């Protein structure tokens, strides 16, 4: 009984410790592609990224602030509070896809992304911009300018770029949910592999 009285407080203290702790935060600000739309919780590419960070013993905890349906306007509105709350060392900015699907002004989308990059870097975060593309039925000119927007912003603001989050997922039957818009669970590892080589140096 005496042994149990001595051991129990230590067990309770160990149980209260977080499973993974880190001295810096990695904030993900994205849309349904990062918010596990239509997937089991914990199976999306952002969750897989947290697992890989832990496996490689990198010092970062992931905060996923992604929301399905989010636009660059919504992200721009939410980012200041997220910066104050989490003080991220790295921001992964995965927005713009919904702007493109809705045919919104490229100038407005670009301005919103530019302001979010400025806000994050002013707050001390390193930014990884994740590019997106829109289907060709929006017209070749719009599609081309949309993809080029991310490349231009990365050069202009001096931030790292993943050119296209969905690279390698051209087989829609294999990698997409029935809506042909949202990647399925099989696709998540491919998406992480698109991001990881650019992200990893930012975490060291």
N-C termini distance: 48 Å
Per the CATH scheme, the topology name is: Rossmann fold
Amount of helix: 40-55%
Strand content range? 5-15%
Average pLDDT, to the nearest integer?
A: 91
| Largest sheet, strands/sense/barrel | 5 strands, parallel
Under CATH, the homologous superfamily reads SGNH hydrolase
Kindly provide the name of the CATH class.
Answer: Alpha Beta
Q: Strand order of the main beta sheet, please? A: 2-1-3-4-5
Task: State the shape.
Answer: globular
Model regions low in confidence, pLDDT < 50 over at least 5 residues? 1-20
Structural class: alpha/beta
SS field, number of helical segments: 8
Q: What number of structural domains do the residues give? A: 1
Order of helices and strands: HEHEHEHHEHEHH
Strand tally is 5
Task: Please give the CATH architecture.
Answer: 3-Layer(aba) Sandwich
